[in-house]
């Protein structure tokens, strides 16, 4: 897919739609959000062909010189500025977006896109299934406490803010992934759905990696420029024989001070993080190998198989045997459970 070719394709699709034409396509159902009446748009419309699209993932193009009423969905929407600029209004806040910017808008969040110009290409990617559900997000995880922690931060921020802005710095990799999704969607061939789903996993992985939220929440004051990611990475690398004392010595901290940093930053103790990493690694081995369970327990650092079973069940709410039998999809991951 060539960027110029995609630009020419989308420019050829530019169109105008009057507000009354848009409203005529969608049932005029309204709901009260924060004491304000807004439209409920649970139908994704192909405004060019005037048809309803029932797919789980739908990409539509914003008509230019058009007024879109303030509305909400029962699904997540990603607004992406492919070319030019636009203003997105979310909860009455006007948010200017530049080329390459992506905003994720949560369910039941009042929003609209203000009138755009002929040269502005704004795309809407609606995810009717909750692609930020635990099942989907587990695909982003490499079965490590770092990935689990970052996914949890994303979910926590999404819950509090109702929308998230991404890619202010115009990360070319993110732009390339989104453009590939768009191209694959509009030029569907065999396995396009599977390819789009895979690109979505890559997209959200890149967003989490680049997200200011994770950067902001992983900084640790007065810690010689170390971040929570540095601490979690150490646990990941040394989980088989890691101790709070050895870790504190590595970072030149007092063990009690390091313990407090971890608890404050992640909501979990060093012991809890260590157990989570061991059990996560064991879970990955159970799914991806036929290694006997006692050998897996020993491999991840448990000398007692009975104790391993106990800890595994505490985190996964099932035995290692049941986990291996019931999670052949290879996408299971334990919750981080920040408290």
Automatic annotation (TrEMBL):
Keywords: DNA-binding, Transcription, Transcription regulation. Gene3D superfamilies: Homeodomain-like, Jelly Rolls. Residues 229-326 form the HTH araC/xylS-type domain. InterPro entries: Cupin_2 (IPR013096), Homeodomain-like_sf (IPR009057), HTH_AraC (IPR018060), RmlC-like_jellyroll (IPR014710), RmlC_Cupin_sf (IPR011051), Tscrpt_reg_AraC-type_HTH (IPR020449). This is AraC family transcriptional regulator.
């Amino acid at each position: 897919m060539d960027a110029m070719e995609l630009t020419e394709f989308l420019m050829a699709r530019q169109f105008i739609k009057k507000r009354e034409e848009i409203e005529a396509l969608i049932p005029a159902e309204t709901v009260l959000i924060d004491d304000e009446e807004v439209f409920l748009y649970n139908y994704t419309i192909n405004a060019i062909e005037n048809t309803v699209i029932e797919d789980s993932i739908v990409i539509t193009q914003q008509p230019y010189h058009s007024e879109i009423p303030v509305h909400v969905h029962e699904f997540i929407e990603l607004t992406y500025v492919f070319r030019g600029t636009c203003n997105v209004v979310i909860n009455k806040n006007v948010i200017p977006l530049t080329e390459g910017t992506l905003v994720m808008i949560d369910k039941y969040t009042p929003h609209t896109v203000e009138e755009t110009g002929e040269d502005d290409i704004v795309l809407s990617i609606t995810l009717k299934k909750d692609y930020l559900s635990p099942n989907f997000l587990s695909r982003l995880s490499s079965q490590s406490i770092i990935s689990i922690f970052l996914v949890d931060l994303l979910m926590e921020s999404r819950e509090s803010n109702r929308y998230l802005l991404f890619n202010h710095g115009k990360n070319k990799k993110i732009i390339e992934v989104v453009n590939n999704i768009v191209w694959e969607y509009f030029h569907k061939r065999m396995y396009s759905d599977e390819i789009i789903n895979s690109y979505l996993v890559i997209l959200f992985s890149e967003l989490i990696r680049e997200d200011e939220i994770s950067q902001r929440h992983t900084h640790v004051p007065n810690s010689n420029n170390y971040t929570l990611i540095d601490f979690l990475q150490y646990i990941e690398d040394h989980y088989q024989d890691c101790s709070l004392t050895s870790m504190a010595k590595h970072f030149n901290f007092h063990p009690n001070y390091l313990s407090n940093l971890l608890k404050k930053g992640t909501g979990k103790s060093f012991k809890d993080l260590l157990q989570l990493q061991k059990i996560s690694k064991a879970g990955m081995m159970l799914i991806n190998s036929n290694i006997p369970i006692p050998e897996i327990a020993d491999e991840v650092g448990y000398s007692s198989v009975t104790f391993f079973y106990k800890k595994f069940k505490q985190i996964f709410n099932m035995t290692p045997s049941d986990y291996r039998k019931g999670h052949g999809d290879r996408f299971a991951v334990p919750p981080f459970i920040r408290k």
